[in-house]
Input
Amino acid sequence: MKNNYLILFSLFSTLSILLVAVASFTMSVYAQEDGNTTDADIPKFFAIQHAQSGSISEINETAYSLELNDVSDKTILFSDRPDRIVKTEITKNFIGNWSTGVDSFADDAPNAVLVVDKIEAQQDTAIVELFNPIYDLDKNSLQYQVTPDNVTSIDLVGEFGQATLLIDPGGQSGPGT
Output
């Protein structure tokens, strides 16, 4: 009987050690962690969306419709220092989470940099705010209402070739995080 208790104790001790080891490997590790991690230390993720073509049309004097065609089915997410985490999120889920959470993009629209290849083979950029995304899985298109924040060189109306949209989370964790 004493032997059975010794075996059970050994198994329990081994299992406990394994659980502690696994937990230490699966915890988030911050490069500059000081043991006082707060909500401010939770990584913020920038999002990258890519499309093969697109267009911008004017809605009114201050708002435009941005349509991205042949959109990648995955949105790339990456965090800044000290975390340097890279992951992907299904674009449908990223857009589906647009208005969820306390810090949702629906409550505080994110800034984004739109980089487009113009038909004349030059590249243009614009800083915009993104609103009201609509992802059409059947058409493989993504549409945003945008307002220009600081137009750097892009003529906002017209068609373009490949496009990349870099979405800044600001003070938010944003969708997909």
